[in-house]
Amino acid sequence: MRIYSWNVNGVRAATKKGLFDWLEHESPDILCIQETKAHVDQLGSEILKDHGYHAYWHSGERRGYSGVATFCKDEPLYVQEGLGIEKYDTEGRVLLTEHEGFLLYNIYFPNGQKDDIRLKYKLDFYDDLLPIINDQVESGNNVIVANNVPLGGHVTIEDSVVIGGNSAVQQFTRIGRLAMIGGMTGVLKDVIPFGLSIGNRNYLQGLNLIGLRRKKYENQKIMGLSKAYKEIFASKNLHENLSKINGEHKGNDLVKEVITFIEKDKKRPICSPKS
Question: Does the model's pTM come out above 0.90?
Fold first, then answer.
């Protein structure tokens, strides 16, 4: 499943620049957009017509400000506008959709701006949101939070990837399954499956061990992956390193997935640990 998130900075302006042509071409399963800056009654026929998606909108009381929308190919099991907290919901910042196997929060996070009032509002929003998300996770739900993450053209994002807010992904970049990208990361190189990547120019900080355990992978396989990770990145010559370990971890599907990912496109730069 492909889930895209895009701060459009005004859905009417984005439509004039080809938003829905892009949507038809890329055809994600779900598109989350933030900062729509419009009420539904302000939207033209080009936006409201059937694009092959179920569309849900949550706008702020103030016209031309804030707002989020979620487009889903398959109808969600449940849709909720807002967090149920009035001071945030009047600004149209959150849309929750429930899908088979996960909950999706489409969020336009507040900007702290320069004055203390809005900074406090932003920090209060984080403080009130986190317990809600944690309760969902502790109840056994898979939760995805979509925020402002610009994606370049022809980006490939595999299943169960988490990308932190205000990160940016360069065109043609691949991000492997169950990888985690820290907030405000510049993703310039491909991230291996199960990798944990951070930094202005992304590097690998390690493996997404928490994500692997939450997916209930066997400890033996996780330990084998950790060992293979050190061997793969033992030197800068990844492909030489791979040739040395290819048979050693033959029965470990996690290691095999990482090796297959790296070898699939040998021309692409692979995100590595800091030397």
Answer: no
The two three-digit tokens of residue 104, written as one number: 């999706």
DSSP 147: -
| Closest to 209 in 3D by CA, of 201, 200, 221, 198 | 221
What value, to the nearest 5°, has the Cα angle with vertex 9 and ends 7 and 11? 95
Nearest alpha carbon to residue 94 among 49, 123, 132, 44: 132
Task: Show the DSSP H helices in 100-252 as ranges.
Answer: 116-138, 209-214, 219-232, 238-245
* Whole-number Å distance between alpha carbons of 74 and 78: 12
Give per-residue pLDDT as tens, 23-51: 999 899 999 999 999 999 998 888 888 89
Domain 156-264 grouped into CATH 2.60.40:
no
Rg (CA), the chain: 20
Neighbours of 121 (CB within 10 A): 17
| CA-based nearest residue to 215, from 193, 191, 187, 184 | 193
pLDDT at 148: 65
CATH 2.160.10 location in the chain? 156-264
Topology, domain 3-146: Deoxyribonuclease I; Chain A (3.60.10)
Mean pLDDT per 10-residue run, the chain (275 residues)?
A: 87 93 92 93 87 94 92 96 95 95 90 79 87 80 73 78 82 92 90 95 95 92 95 91 79 94 93 92
Instruction: Kindly report, as residue ranges, where domains of CATH 3.60.10.10 are found in the chain.
Output: 3-146
CA distance 225 to 176: 15
Q: Provide CB contacts within 8 A for 19, sequence distance 6+.
A: 8, 11
Joined together, the tokens standing for residue 160 give 């169960």
> Identity (one letter) of the amino acid at 152?
G
